[in-house]
Design brief:
Blueprint: E1 7-12, E2 15-21, H1 24-31, H2 48-64, H3 77-87, E3 93-99, H4 103-115, E4 121-127, E5 130-138, H5 148-166, H6 170-179
Antiparallel strand pairs: 1-2, 3-5, 4-5
Helix pairs in contact: 2-3, 2-5, 2-6, 3-5
Length: 180
């Protein structure tokens, strides 16, 4: 079971010389561990500022999404977040293809997922074997446990899509939403 301990760099002459526990509870936890018996992964905590921008940009986009364009969130930021996550790439979704003539079976699957409170998105794709009906389901992601290295590719892809859709930076999109 992974343990999370917050640490701060020990700076000497402006250069990092090691790590020290950030809080007393972190120091107490580290004191209980046997030296050499554990693997450590040191990762950068996610930027609170960047996280706020990510979530606020999705919220503003959901409220200002162009009418008639997929996925038509109509203010539903969770629907838009799930759709953007699927569009961000295969690391963030599961996909399944169905022959075009059996798409009604796929629709049954979609209705089942939606009934469970999940999202599913579809598209038609053309292949050498003929048209296919593709269903994308966003993966369940525990955002709270992702460090910056894990979250950065998703955040970048989503903000890039929003910037392309609205023709402005994510910061400008959020500023526009707050001014409205």
């Amino acid at each position: 079971m992974p343990l999370t301990v917050q640490v701060l760099p020990i700076m000497v002459g402006g250069k990092p010389q090691g790590l020290a526990p950030k809080r007393r509870i972190d120091a107490e936890l580290l004191a209980t561990l046997k030296p050499g018996a554990y693997k450590a992964k040191i990762s950068k905590l996610r930027s609170i500022k960047a996280d706020r921008l990510y979530h606020k940009a999705i919220e503003v986009a959901a409220d200002n999404w162009p009418e008639g364009e997929e996925p038509e969130p109509k203010g539903d930021k969770e629907l838009l977040r799930a759709w953007l996550q699927c569009k961000a790439g295969p690391n963030w979704r599961k996909s399944a293809d169905f022959p075009w003539d059996t798409r009604h079976s796929a629709i049954f699957l979609i209705e089942h997922l939606v009934g469970e409170g999940r999202y599913a998105f579809t598209e038609r794709i053309d292949t050498d074997q003929g048209p296919k009906f593709r269903v994308h389901v966003p993966l369940s992601i525990n955002h709270d446990n992702m460090d910056d290295e894990e979250f950065q590719p998703l955040r970048s892809a989503v903000l890039e899509m929003l910037e392309e859709k609205f023709g402005c930076t994510a910061l400008e999109l959020v500023a526009h939403g707050e001014a409205a």
